[in-house]
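Why show two proteins at once? Because comparison is the fastest way to build intuition. When a single record is shown, students tend to memorize it. When two are placed side by side, the eye starts asking what differs. So, the first record is below.
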Amino acid sequence: MTSRAVSGPVRSMLYVPGDKPRAIEKARTLDADAVILDLEDAVAPEHKAEARANVRAALLAGGWRVPVLVRVNGLNTEWEHEDREMALLSGASGLVLPKVEDDRAASQLALGCPLWAMIETPAGVLNAPAIAAVPGVAGLLVGANDLARVLRTRPHPERLPLLHALSAVVLAARAHGKLPLDAVFNDVRDPAGFARECEGGRALGFAGKTVIHPDQIAPANAAYGVTDEQARQAQALLDAWAHGRASGKSVVTHGGALVEQMHADEAQEVLTLWAATQQAIQESGAESSH
């Protein structure tokens, strides 16, 4: 059974440890836009085989309302081949590959299943444009914990030491029409810090955020979503733009500001995201009622 492909907004991607069956079942009921069943960092070596069996069972059972990806163990590990074979044969929506550092590795694993490349090292950041250019790559996910450790940065509430790397990943992904997803926020007891980091990531251009706890889903969805009021404002701008152009005006103003084609394009993007989000909510509600 093939899981639903990632096609709508990805405001939140929830990591779920593969060796926690109860957490996997709970994830079915949550409102994340996508789920990543994790076989890598969240699973101790002695539990890898058990986790793989759990993830296989969860994928084959179906019933997921959202796309389900599998984070496999990395290249040159003893688990890599069995992980990828299981995910591909069990119908995962995509493979999440840790520590991708060049386009060669990404190209080798573009196996007909969307690949989400984790950028977690300096080499990965420097080669992000080439990685994003690989046809089979669907998006880039930042792994800030490993990146910060290798760069020997110090913690900072605004992530100033990592801003260059974060922007580089966004730039690479957007240049090739791929989705950039921001890194996890480790302290689940700090909702204010999480909200601040979501807003910062949205400002940098990320499409959504990877999360590690159910309580982080709603704030991520809100930060990376579109409110009804924002949709209304976008529609009003488009209406003013269309009316002005139809009247033969070369300059259109709305709310006292000059409106150009790029503003109209941006407003249309807002409405498209809002419509996709509303559709996802409706589909989620309909499936929950069955």
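Second record. Ask yourself what differs from the first in the token line.
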Amino acid sequence: MSLNKISIAIDGPAGAGKSTIAKLIARTMNLTYIDTGAMYRAITFKILRDRIDLSNEIKLLDFLNQTKIDIVNGEILLDDLLITEKLRTPEINHYVSNIAQIPIVRKKMVELQRRIAANHNVIMDGRDIGTTVLPNATHKFFITASIEERAQRRYNELCIKGFHQDLQEVQAEIEQRDKIDTERTISPLKKHENAILIDTTGMTIEEVTDKILSYIK
């Protein structure tokens, strides 16, 4: 398959390892990596920072139209300011799924994600890439893991970044995010019928990456 026709969609629940694996594959295959979850985190960050009234749809739409989100070398720029390191806080973890299910927010984000993908050879991860954002992707994968392992991964990530949160609390938040993501009306999290299912429970990052690359190549 020609490289200039490759687009890879990776979907799955929170903490499954999508972003880490997608970044490795992007480097290996020289593809543009698009972290859609980080894009939703960026808009959540700005909504919380600016105390935007989510019940006022007209003002929210105007706010979205005036917001600029870019991805440069894997880093997230919000209105031309680098904010990647600010996006993995417990506060954003708590609110991002609720904000991401707002229809006009999703519509704007999907438009932006498709625009980026149209101009690059991409690997994109998120909740609805293979089903909604890139329905014609050349390769589709659905990555998951047990709730216990996903919670432990997120807990470890928070500890490394200096945030202290109880493991049981982290697991409860992930379970709530799973519920929101799978039950929302707009673009719910689900495996596309053509996506390859990979359960990463007990697997190393290298093992998962090698498995996905074996399907692509």
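One difference worth noting in the second protein: The first helix runs from residue 18 to 29.
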